[in-house]
Every structure is written in structure tokens, then in C-alpha cells.
Specification:
It is built from nine helices and 13 strands. It has 303 residues and is of the alpha/beta class. The strands form three sheets. A six-stranded mixed beta sheet has the order 2-1-3-12-4-13, with helices on both faces. Strand 7, helix 5 and strand 8 form a beta-alpha-beta unit. Helix 2 crosses helix 8.
Length: 303
């Protein structure tokens, strides 16, 4: 019962609501717009925005709708949100042209760039002004796990296969620490960081790999203990599919670089501090992305 109460507290603290599995396109007029069947007809003059699943889809929608309103006000172009279904991939959506812009992690970007020519516009900015973030291994506070080596024979919850912080970076950390997946007692990929956290808090898994923002918040509240922290890796991007007019691309890039979620634009946003881009955006470090591509190829996550 105590574990269940902790899970509920965690959910309340990070404002995560129920699940959503079916695809939808959301009008900027309301975050509660009715679902539309997929595929729905593409409206001329509208640019569709997708995203990697991070927390709960319903909460992601509430978070991104005000952000797209900001883009509309700033660029004068029209945007609609297209959440990707649980069984889908934002990489495929970009490749098919179902979405033209997307908030995606580094591994998703590298895959989309290699397969479809998707380009990164901006990267998430950190507190130092750079374009990096970190991954964390966490466990419950009463766990005996103190290092990555202690994961041998234990169960590990990972993020989605396409997740940078939830899968790629943790796999690299394990490899560099001399721990292989076969050394674990069990491991399983989960579709979002929320599900990974819940797998650890509920006791179903001994440890989990999480994004630094969520992991630190849970640790601050005493719900988890941080076991290991990664080196800095290139942060999530806003990327664009091929074929979008250059004038639109440059207008969106300029709007993103002037986006100020901690001050000027904060009052009109919804829980943006829980996003992968809480401090706004900066220029993309292409050389750093190339280095991550090599690491992803080494651990077999990019072919």
C-alpha cells in the first residue's frame, strides 16, 4: 500500500493524467478537441507537429498546445498537434510527411535524418546555455543498488527503444561500465519515462533509466535514489521534415530561438518545465550529434 501511495504521489506531483492510445489531431482552439480517426485529411496551409512520447500522452497534449499557439502568434503560420499512437513512431510520421515538425530526442533525430533527410532546427537549451542533457539510473531509496555493477542479476526498466535518455545513453553507460544486458536478471523497454518511473516505484523493477529532469524531481521528493549519472549528451531537438518551404523553416527557427519559457512566455504555457526543453532552445551542435551517431551504431541502435 505504501508503494501505491508513492506512485500516486509521484503522479500528482508531476501532473500526469490517464493514457491515450489512439492517434488524434488536436485543434489549437482546445486541448480537449475530439479525436479524429487516422489517417485524417491534411488541411492545406496547416503544419502538423508531432513529438516523442515523454510522460503521459494526455498531459503531453496539454503541454504542447499552448506552445503551438506561441508559434502561431510569432510566425503567423497555422499549426496543429498530431500525437503519435502508442504503436506508431514520430520518425515514420516525419518520413511520411504526416507531420512536418516534431520535438524528438537525439536517437529519433539521427534515425529520421538517416532514413528520410529530416533536419534539426534547434536543440533544447540547458542552464549553462549549451545543448546537452543527461540520463540517470535510479532505484528505490531502500534498495541495495549503489553502482552500475550492482545491476548484475537485477531487473532494469529502460525507456522506449528510440529514447536517447531512456535507452541509448543507458546502454552506452552499461557498456562503458563493463555490464552487458545479458548480465542483468531482466530488462524491459517502456514506452515513456513515466512508465519507467512507475515500474521502479511499484517494485516491479529494481532500477530504471530516466531523463534527468524527471529523475531529479523524484529524487528531490525522496521517491527514488540516483545511482549513476551520464556525461552530457546532445539534447532533444525540434526537427523538420523535407519539403517544408524555406521561409516557413526560417520563421519557425527564429521563433524557437526567441522563445522564453521561463519569463516572457511562461504565463501562457502549461507545465513547460516538465518538457524536454524547459529553458528554451539554442543552436544545434552537429559535431556532437555525429559523435552520438557513432555510439548508437556501436551499441546496435542505429544501422
Amino acid at each position: 500500500m505504501r508503494t501505491l501511495r508513492l506512485v500516486f504521489l509521484c503522479i500528482m506531483v508531476i501532473a500526469i493524467a490517464g493514457c491515450q492510445a489512439t492517434p488524434l489531431r488536436v485543434s489549437l482552439s482546445s486541448a480537449n478537441q475530439a479525436e479524429l480517426p487516422s489517417p485524417a485529411s491534411v488541411e492545406p496551409g496547416v503544419y502538423y507537429f508531432g513529438f516523442d512520447r515523454r510522460l503521459d500522452p494526455a498531459e503531453d497534449v496539454r503541454m504542447y498546445v499552448p506552445f503551438l499557439k506561441y508559434l502561431e502568434r510569432t510566425t503567423k503560420f497555422h499549426f496543429k498537434l498530431r500525437p503519435v499512437p502508442r504503436t506508431g513512431s514520430v520518425v515514420d510520421e516525419l518520413g511520411k510527411g504526416t507531420v512536418q515538425f516534431a520535438a524528438i530526442g537525439t536517437l529519433s533525430y539521427l534515425t529520421a535524418h538517416k532514413q528520410f533527410g529530416v533536419e534539426a532546427l534547434v536543440a533544447a537549451r540547458n542552464a549553462e546555455g549549451g545543448a546537452t542533457y543527461r540520463a540517470l539510473f535510479v532505484t528505490r531509496p531502500d534498495s541495495g543498488i549503489r553502482s552500475l555493477n550492482d545491476l548484475r542479476g537485477r531487473s532494469l526498466a529502460l525507456g522506449a527503444p528510440t529514447s536517447t535518455q531512456g535507452n541509448l545513453i543507458p546502454r552506452v553507460m552499461l557498456q562503458q561500465g563493463g555490464v552487458s544486458l545479458s548480465d542483468l536478471g531482466a530488462f524491459q523497454n517502456h514506452s515513456s519515462h513515466f512508465e519507467t518511473a512507475n515500474a521502479v516505484l511499484s517494485g516491479r523493477f529494481d532500477a530504471g533509466a530516466l531523463q534527468d529532469t524527471l529523475g531529479r524531481e523524484l529524487a528531490r521528493q525522496g521517491l527514488v535514489r540516483i545511482v549513476a549519472e551520464s556525461a552530457p549528451f546532445p539534447s532533444s531537438t525540434i526537427s523538420v521534415a523535407p519539403g517544408v518551404p524555406g521561409a516557413v523553416v526560417e520563421a519557425v527557427r527564429a521563433a524557437l530561438l526567441t522563445f522564453d519559457p521561463t519569463a516572457r512566455d511562461k504565463p501562457k504555457l502549461y507545465h513547460w518545465d516538465q518538457s524536454e526543453m524547459p529553458l528554451g532552445f539554442t543552436q544545434v551542435d552537429l559535431q556532437a550529434l555525429e559523435r552520438v551517431q557513432q555510439l548508437a551504431e556501436q551499441v546496435g541502435l542505429l544501422k
